[in-house]
Every structure is written in structure tokens, then in C-alpha cells.
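Exercise 7b. C-alpha cells:
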């Protein structure tokens, strides 16, 4: 797949079917994605709060280097996915950026605001506009 290539829905379905066949035949998901050429850079939207557990609000904001100790199944699932994806990246299957975002999606979020990145990016993608951020991604 060429860098920056925008796929049609039917092309995405074809790639997903190819990946399904490969994983059914024993390949890992990372190996299958690499084999069909779908992974150049991968992003995982984790959770901006649940992976950290019960954080004292008196401390104010916390950094991404704060220790993790999920106290809910959701937080544990997100942190487990982070670790599994990190393992695949270490093995060279893909490049990975994990984003511990907060308030990224919801029915009540206005796509014209800069809050709720999933809704904003979906709206921009559907309009054929580039995906933008208001920060320097090098700081993540």
C-alpha cells in the first residue's frame, strides 16, 4: 500500500478478509497486517484516566510517566492492550504510538469544536479534509 493512499471501503473489506484468512491459518494479527502491507504507523487510543487508577485530585494533573494501577476492568483492558501492542512493536511488526487521550468521543460532542478528536477527525475525513491537531505530536 502506497504511503498516504486513501482506500475505498471495498478495498478495506478486502484487506480485512485477507487478514482474517491469515489469522485463521495461524498468523498473529501483527504478522498478518505486516504481510498484507497495511501497517506503516499504528496508533492506539487508550484511556486518559482509567489506566492510572485512583488518582488523588489534590495532585492536579498527572503525567504519562505516572504509575499505572487500573481499578476497573475497562482500565485493565486498556493497559493490557497497550502492553500487547508494545510487544508487537518491539518485535518489529509495526511502528506504534499510544495515545492516552481523554474525552475523545461522544454523541454530545460537537464535531466543529476542538474537543472529541474521534468525531472531529471522522467529520474531517468524510469531508476530504486533512486530520489536524492543535499540538505538536512530538510532545506525546
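Sequence design result:
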Amino acid at each position: 500500500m502506497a504511503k498516504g493512499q486513501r482506500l475505498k471501503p471495498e478495498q478495506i473489506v478486502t484487506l480485512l478478509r485477507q487478514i482474517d484468512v491469515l489469522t485463521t491459518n495461524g498468523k498473529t494479527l501483527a504478522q498478518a497486517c505486516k504481510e498484507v502491507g497495511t501497517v506503516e504507523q499504528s496508533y492506539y487510543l487508550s484511556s486518559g484516566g482509567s489506566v492510572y487508577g485512583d488518582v488523588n485530585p489534590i495532585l492536579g494533573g498527572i503525567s504519562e510517566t505516572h504509575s499505572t494501577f487500573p481499578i476497573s476492568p475497562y482500565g485493565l483492558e486498556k493497559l493490557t492492550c497497550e502492553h500487547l501492542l508494545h510487544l508487537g512493536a518491539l518485535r518489529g511488526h509495526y511502528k506504534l504510538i499510544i495515545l492516552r487521550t481523554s474525552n475523545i468521543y461522544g454523541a454530545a460532542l460537537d464535531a466543529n469544536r476542538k474537543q472529541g478528536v474521534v468525531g472531529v477527525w471522522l467529520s474531517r475525513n468524510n469531508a476530504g479534509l486533512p486530520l489536524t491537531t492543535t499540538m505538536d505530536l512530538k510532545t506525546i
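Instructor comment: The chain is about 35% helix and 5% strand. The first helix runs from residue 9 to 24.
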